[in-house]
C-alpha cells in the first residue's frame, strides 16, 4: 500500500552550528580570544631570512599558527618577449601546500592573493634599478592560521630586502576584523570565519605611505578610522622587528 511521501529538511552540519555558536560569543562585549590575547594585541612574530639557499633572497615568517616561506629570484632577463623598458617587472605567485589547512588536499595557487601581493609590493620597489629584467616572488603558505595575506606581504618584503632588491622602504602589513562594536587585530582563522568585516593595510612605515588598503563588510566612518589607526600603529612596530631581523644578519 502506497503511503504519502514524507517531507524533510536537511539538518545543519556540525561545523555550521559550531560557527554560529562562536559568532554569538564573538558579538559579546567581554569574550576572550582563544589564544589569550587582548583585542588589540598581535600574535608573536618570528622572522628569519635565508630560508631557501637556492634563491637570491628568502624569508620565513611565523605568526601564531600562520607559517609562510617566500623565495625571491632575480633580477634576471625576462622570459617574455618585450620591448625595452626603463623599469623592471615584478611577478608574484602565492600558493598553499596540501597540508596548510585542516582539509587535506586543497593546496593550490591563490590568484587573488598573488595579485594583491603584487599591488602591495610594486609601489615600494625601485623598478628603475633593474630595467628589462624580472624579479620573481614565490610565497608558499605552509600553515594557514589566519591573517595569511598580511603575513605573506610582510614576509615577501623581507625576502626582497634579503635579495638586495632596491626598495624605498620595507612593507609591513596588518589586518583587523570587526565583530559588532569590537575591533580585533591580527585575527586567527577561527575569528576570520565569523567576522562582520575586515580591513587590511600594507604600508611603508618610514615614509608613512599606504601601498594597499582593502576593506570588506559594512563599516562606519568612525570604525574605519579606528581600524586604520590600529593597523598603522601595528605596522610601525612590525617594521621595527623586520629591520632588527635584517640587522642581525648583516652583523
From TrEMBL:
Keyword Nucleus in record: yes
Gene3D superfamilies from the UniProt entry: GHMP Kinase, N-terminal domain
InterPro entries: ExoRNase_PH_dom1, ExoRNase_PH_dom2, ExoRNase_PH_dom2_sf, PNPase/RNase_PH_dom_sf, Ribosomal_Su5_D2-typ_SF, RNase_PH
Biased composition (Polar residues): 1-13
Gene Ontology biological process terms in this record: nuclear mRNA surveillance; poly(A)-dependent snoRNA 3'-end processing; rRNA catabolic process; rRNA processing; U4 snRNA 3'-end processing
This protein's GO CC annotations: cytoplasmic exosome (RNase complex); nuclear exosome (RNase complex); nucleolus
Keyword rRNA processing: yes
Localization: Cytoplasm; Nucleus
Region (Disordered): 1-20
Keyword terms of this UniProt record: Cytoplasm, Exosome, Nucleus, RNA-binding, rRNA processing
SUPFAM superfamilies: Ribonuclease PH domain 2-like (SSF55666), Ribosomal protein S5 domain 2-like (SSF54211)
GO MF entries: RNA binding
Domain Exoribonuclease phosphorolytic, residue spans: 41-165, 169-230
Family: Belongs to the RNase PH family.
Protein name: Exosome complex component RRP41-like
Organism: Cocos nucifera
Amino acid at each position: 500500500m502506497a503511503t504519502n511521501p514524507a517531507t524533510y529538511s536537511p539538518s545543519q552540519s556540525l561545523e555550521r552550528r559550531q560557527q554560529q555558536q562562536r559568532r554569538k560569543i564573538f558579538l559579546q562585549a567581554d569574550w576572550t580570544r582563544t589564544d589569550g590575547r587582548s583585542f588589540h594585541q598581535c600574535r608573536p612574530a618570528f622572522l628569519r631570512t635565508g630560508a631557501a639557499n637556492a634563491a637570491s633572497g628568502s624569508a620565513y615568517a611565523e605568526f601564531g599558527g600562520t607559517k609562510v616561506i617566500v623565495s625571491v629570484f632575480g633580477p634576471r632577463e625576462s622570459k617574455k618577449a618585450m620591448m625595452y623598458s626603463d623599469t623592471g617587472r615584478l611577478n608574484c605567485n602565492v600558493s598553499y601546500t596540501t597540508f596548510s589547512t585542516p582539509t587535506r588536499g586543497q593546496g593550490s595557487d591563490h590568484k587573488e592573493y598573488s595579485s594583491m601581493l603584487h599591488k602591495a609590493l610594486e609601489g615600494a620597489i625601485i623598478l628603475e634599478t633593474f630595467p628589462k629584467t624580472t624579479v620573481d616572488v614565490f610565497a608558499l603558505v605552509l600553515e594557514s592560521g589566519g591573517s595569511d595575506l598580511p603575513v605573506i606581504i610582510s614576509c615577501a618584503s623581507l625576502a626582497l630586502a634579503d635579495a638586495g632588491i632596491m626598495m624605498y622602504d620595507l612593507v609591513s602589513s596588518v589586518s583587523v576584523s570587526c565583530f559588532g562594536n569590537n575591533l580585533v587585530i591580527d585575527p586567527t582563522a577561527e575569528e576570520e570565519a565569523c567576522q562582520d568585516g575586515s580591513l587590511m593595510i600594507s604600508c611603508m612605515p618610514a615614509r608613512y605611505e599606504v601601498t594597499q588598503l582593502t576593506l570588506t563588510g559594512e563599516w562606519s566612518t568612525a570604525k574605519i578610522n579606528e581600524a586604520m589607526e590600529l593597523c598603522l600603529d601595528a605596522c610601525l612596530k612590525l617594521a621595527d622587528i623586520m629591520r632588527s631581523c635584517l640587522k642581525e644578519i648583516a652583523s
